[in-house]
Amino acid sequence: MYITEHKTALRMRLALTIADLTSSEYLGNYESGQTVDGIRHEDLQNLSFESSSKDVILSLDVLEHVNDPLQSLREIERVLAPGGVAVVTFPFYADRTTTVRRSEIRDGQIVTLLPDEFHGNPLGGGSLVFSEFSWDFLRTVIQEIPGSRFVQYFSSHALHLGGWRFALLIEKP
């Protein structure tokens, strides 16, 4: 199993019961797979794992923080083993028809398209938001990522009590 977070309560809980759990954080300009201060670095757009090597992948509210979310999903699908499943969540803006790009990387530099927005980061500070996803993104993912589908969910525990909350499931045949 691979989870795209390391310094969270969920990862710590999973580590108690899953012997082969691999976890990571995005740590900046390092090579994917490199360990920095005891934490594995992975760039979701260029994962270091072998193809078809992970049975389960969890990526919870990370996708909005990458420059190329579709490439990240292609990487998740590449790494997923046959019969495996990935669960990917991200904030969703149902009141819009198109995804909003807040920032992007051009020539290795972050270009701000809208005022910066940051979400909490378990390593401290905040993580820059690149995309605010809407209906067009869901359609594109279903067309481009084999085995993908979206499920709507709610959670009384996390106080997700309605609205449009989606989890992307990628199941590799």
Q: Could you characterize the architecture of this molecule?
A:
By secondary structure, this protein is α/β, with parallel strands linked by helices. The chain is built from 3 helices and 14 strands. The strands form 5 sheets. A 6-stranded mixed sheet has the order 2-1-5-6-14-13. It has a two-stranded antiparallel ribbon with strand order 3-4. A two-stranded antiparallel sheet has the order 7-12. The mean pLDDT is 93.
Shape: globular
Largest beta-sheet characterization:
6 strands, mixed
Mean pLDDT over the full residue set: 93
N-C termini distance: 17 Å
Largest sheet strand order: 2-1-5-6-14-13
The residue fraction in helices comes out at 10-25%
Count of helical stretches: 3
**What radius of gyration results from the CA coordinates?**
16 Å
Unreliable stretches (pLDDT < 50, length at least 5) are none
Q: By helix and strand content, what is the structural category?
A: alpha/beta
Task: Produce a short descriptive summary.
The protein has helices spanning 9-17, 69-79, 135-144; strands at residues 2-3, 22-23, 35-36, 39-40, 54-60, 80-89, 100-101, 103-106, 109-112, 118-120, 126-128, 131-132, 148-152, 166-171. Helices cover 17% and strands 31% of the residues.
For the structure shown, list the relevant keywords.
173 residues; alpha/beta; 3 helices; 14 strands; 17% helix; 31% strand
What secondary-structure arrangement, pairings included, does this model have?
Elements: E1 2-3, H1 9-17, E2 22-23, E3 35-36, E4 39-40, E5 54-60, H2 69-79, E6 80-89, E7 100-101, E8 103-106, E9 109-112, E10 118-120, E11 126-128, E12 131-132, H3 135-144, E13 148-152, E14 166-171
